[in-house]
Design a protein that fits this description.
The protein folds into 2 domains: 192 residues, Ribosomal Protein S5, domain 2 (2-Layer Sandwich), CATH 3.30.230.10; 153 residues, GHMP kinase, C-terminal domain (Alpha-Beta Plaits, 2-Layer Sandwich). With 367 residues, it is of the alpha+beta class. A hairpin with a 5-residue loop joins strand 11 and strand 12. Bound molecules: ligand DP6. The site of ligand DP6 has 17 residues, from helix 5.
Length: 367
């Protein structure tokens, strides 16, 4: 039995890993899925710069251990609801990461935005978590952390795949800039299983300074979760039409992005936002996530665009809050417009000033 003990000692490893991942906002919406988290249609999003979640994992791996999430805190407080979701997620990952079955984890999650801000933090959180597990695999498995591009590519592809299993849109938060998820004929290498960055050559520099003002209309819990909404697409009367529409809109926006056509970009982005909410309203049972102030804000944004001639548009995710998209060159004028005309329609005048970001970063604390 002495040799078993020495194996135990040899295989004991512990460490600390931390990744910070951004939230993302979809321009072409993912709405409807197949098991397991495969999208009904392709989607396109960009990641944010300031709305981020940092996950830190302390792990102890030893052949004598059994998998256990020993603790989970959200912004410093234990959170049992998330703890059990994350524990279930980790257990589902064991076939991909066998070392997890002998690992004890303590996880801390911290978001830069309040949980009540109405921004889905799950995409950022599952992205950061998946990246932590992939880094842990390299440390525990003793694999080279890798400077080679191919190794790095595989690392992020694997993280994107794993993030997807936690929350579909999370697979897009593993990369920076504009990110596509789902097979698109025009984009070789695009896939339903992992997200891919939209090649910089395909995005006109005009779009590199995209900003997002998130106008908080309501920060309450959603009446219908995204998962329930996706499920309703299964037998939705407009399902086939939606797939066609999303595919066509993807083609249109890709062309607009390449050509630098901000007008078509705005047209497609707003069409997608309104289609998403129309699909919710025409589900069975129908549901409405917009609030009266969502509509007032849309009205004011459209009027301002017409009067000012500035390039701005709005999108919505599965909630009532408006994402006002514009370009850095107009920041001053749009900022004044937001303060003077929009904040009175926001809950307690709240908004988040954000912009397109570069994607996740590994945090090397105390090293
Ligand atoms: C409207 O990724 O949150 O934001 O896969 O069930 O976790 P699950 O859903 P989720 O859905 C996001 C829906 C959306 C559109 C989008 O982000 O593309």
């Amino acid at each position: 039995m002495g040799s078993t003990n020495s194996n135990l000692v040899e295989e004991h490893k512990s460490g600390h890993i931390s990744w910070q991942s951004p939230a993302n906002i979809a321009l072409i919406k993912y709405w409807g899925k197949y098991p397991v988290q495969l999208p009904m249609n392709p989607s396109l999003s960009f990641v944010l710069n300031n709305s981020v979640v940092k996950i830190s994992v302390d792990y102890t791996h030893s052949t004598g251990n059994e998998f256990r999430l020993a603790s989970f805190t959200l912004n410093g407080q234990p959170n049992h609801v998330f703890a059990s979701r994350i524990s279930g997620y980790m257990q589902a990952l064991i076939p991909f990461f066998p070392f997890l079955s002998h690992t004890i984890l303590n996880i801390n999650s911290h978001s830069s935005f309040p949980h009540s801000a109405g921004i889905a933090s799950s995409a950022a959180a599952f992205s950061a978590l998946a990246l932590c597990i992939c880094s842990m695999e390299q440390e525990v498995g003793g694999k080279d952390a890798g400077g080679k591009t191919t190794t790095e590519d595989n690392f992020f592809r694997k993280a994107s795949y794993m993030a997807r299993l936690g929350s579909g849109s999370a697979c897009r938060s593993v990369y920076g800039g504009m990110v596509v998820w789902g097979k698109v004929r025009e984009l070789p290498g695009s896939s339903d299983e992992v997200a891919t960055t939209l090649d910089k050559g395909k995005v006109n520099p005009v779009f590199s300074t995209l900003r997002d003002a998130i106008l908080i209309v309501d920060d309450g819990r959603k009446e219908v979760s995204s998962s329930a909404g996706h499920a309703m697409m299964q037998h939705h009367p407009y399902r086939a039409t939606r797939i066609k529409q999303a595919t066509a809109n993807m083609r249109r926006i890709l062309q607009a992005l390449t050509e630098g056509n901000t007008e078509v970009f705005a047209e497609v982005v707003e069409e997608e936002a309104l289609s998403l909410h129309s699909l919710m309203m025409s589900s069975s049972p129908g549901f409405i996530l917009m609030r009266p102030n969502t509509l007032y804000l849309i009205d004011r944004i459209r009027n301002f665009r017409e009067q000012s001639g500035l390039e701005l548009c709005f999108t919505l995710d599965a909630g009532p809050n408006i994402h006002l998209l514009y370009f850095e060159k107009d920041q001053q004028q749009i900022g004044a417009f937001i303060r003077e005309s929009l904040l009175t329609l926001c809950k307690q005048g709240r908004w988040i000033d954000d912009a397109m970001g570069d994607g996740p970063v590994r945090i090397l604390e105390g090293r």
